[in-house]
Design goal:
By secondary structure, the chain is an alpha+beta fold. The chain has a single domain, classed as SH3 type barrels. About 20% of the residues lie in helices and about 40% in strands. The protein has two helices and six strands. Strands 4-5-3-2-1-6 form a six-stranded antiparallel sheet. The longest helix is centred in the last third of the chain and has 15 residues. About 25% of the residues are buried.
């Protein structure tokens, strides 16, 4: 598998899940840094959804990218640590400015 890079949106198998976690094979946004991704055997990622979201920022962030298969929202509150074996093909990579806004939302949620 090619290196998994911060800011990439990739397909991932999120099953099995519990409760209100996002399930199935779906896009995720990798937020962990490149060195961690290469060495740890896991990545830290945020789930995406194509369902319109009632909750606004910082809980969700609407994405506009031509390579996404559908209009999408990053579920900033749905953070997961995933084994690299769960990570599939790359869909696209977000601009650093967009990734920065999403990380700011995460910081608001966790009190950073």
């Amino acid at each position: 598998m090619a290196h998994i890079l911060r800011g990439e949106i990739r397909w991932a198998d999120l099953n099995p899940v519990r409760g209100s976690e996002q399930a199935g094979t779906r896009p995720v946004l990798v937020i962990s840094n490149d060195i961690f991704n290469a060495r740890a055997g896991v990545v830290i990622a945020l789930a995406l959804t194509s369902q319109p979201q009632r909750a606004g920022f910082p809980l969700t962030f609407e994405l506009e990218h031509p390579d996404l298969p559908k209009k999408s929202w990053v579920k900033i509150s749905q953070i997961r640590t995933l084994a690299v074996e769960r990570i599939g093909a790359r869909i696209c990579r977000l601009a650093p400015e967009t990734l920065g806004q999403i990380v700011e939302g995460l910081n608001e949620i966790v009190g950073g």
